[in-house]
Amino acid sequence: MSVVRSDADFESAGSQCAAWLYEPSDVEDPPVVVMAHGFGGERDARLPAFAERFAEAGFAVLLFDYRGFGDSDGEPKHVISGKRHVADYRAALDHVRTLDTVEGDRVALWGTSFSGGHAIRTAALDGDVEAVVAQVPFSDGLRNAVHLVRQCGLDYLLGATTSIVREAGRILTTRDPFYVPIVSDPDDFGVLNTPDAKPGYHSLIPDGREDDFDNECAARILATVAFYRPISVAPEVDCPVYVAEATEDSIIPTSSVERLVDRLDDVEHDRYPVGHFDPYTGETFERIVEAERAFLERYLRTEDTSTTSRTGEEKATRSD
């Protein structure tokens, strides 16, 4: 099936969010998948591969950049904030529900890593989403912060503390943020500096963009991330959720994913023996995107999904 991509920008909190709308050419009023990237990511970093695959299956896809990232407006740049990103997701939802060429009352949310938590939180707040895909999802900031300190040692804690203090001074004096690397080598401080973080992150950057990739974010996220816990609203999500867990994940603790699954009422849970960045490329991408496509087929295609929903003790857990 051929796919047409067009610009579909929208406004969030007074700033313009850059968005692409993927539409299957042979489907009238298709249901919609709304998606955005994870921690500091931009829409062109391997997400078009997912969007195109979903569109080829007959879904429209709205893929957007958060305020202050990629081609979106918004100042200051590169401020990572769960609250801010969720507001952008909700604005994207409002936007697709006004479009004439899609079925705006049948919408799914897709998120990966940090945005896996955003998708969960947005679904709980919105209450009118048909399905959620949460890929290698972040869900508990406190557990994640402790996990990274344990992984990366006291030097990481010292680097984070120093960066927070410098950022606080800039906020108090109304200056531009103090920026820290999103990813770095293990011997250098970065928000993500596990051994696979830098090569994994860079594997997502499109060819030709290596030199203009902005490997930075405002240090304030280091002070606030522990308080961002989408898992706390997981029981309020009233639609089916597909969770793809990476069992060799060095960034998201598997215990937090298991706890998220336990708190969701209607969930399909697949475990993949891979690392955090493997779902975006190669054979792992093919397996995961096919599982996600099949899940979306089940819950966006039919009006009555009650016969296929698996809840409570019937939760589906599959190890690959």
What does this protein look like?
- With about 325 residues, the chain is α/β, with parallel strands linked by helices.
- The protein has a single domain, classed as Alpha/Beta hydrolase fold, catalytic domain (Rossmann fold, 3-Layer(aba) Sandwich).
- About 35% of the residues lie in helices and about 20% in strands.
- The chain has helices at about 45-55, 80-95, 115-125, 140-150, 155-170, 195-200, 220-225, 255-265, 280-300, and strands at about 5, 10, 15, 20-25, 30-35, 60-65, 105-110, 130-135, 180, 215-220, 240-245, 265-270, 315-320.
- The protein has a nine-stranded mixed sheet, sandwiched between helices. The chain has a two-stranded antiparallel ribbon with strand order 2-3. Strands 9-10 form a two-stranded antiparallel ribbon.
- α3 (about 115-125) links the parallel β7 (about 105-110) and β8.
- The chain is globular, with a radius of gyration of 19 Å.
- The protein starts with a strand and ends with a strand.
- Residues about 305-315 have low confidence and may be disordered.
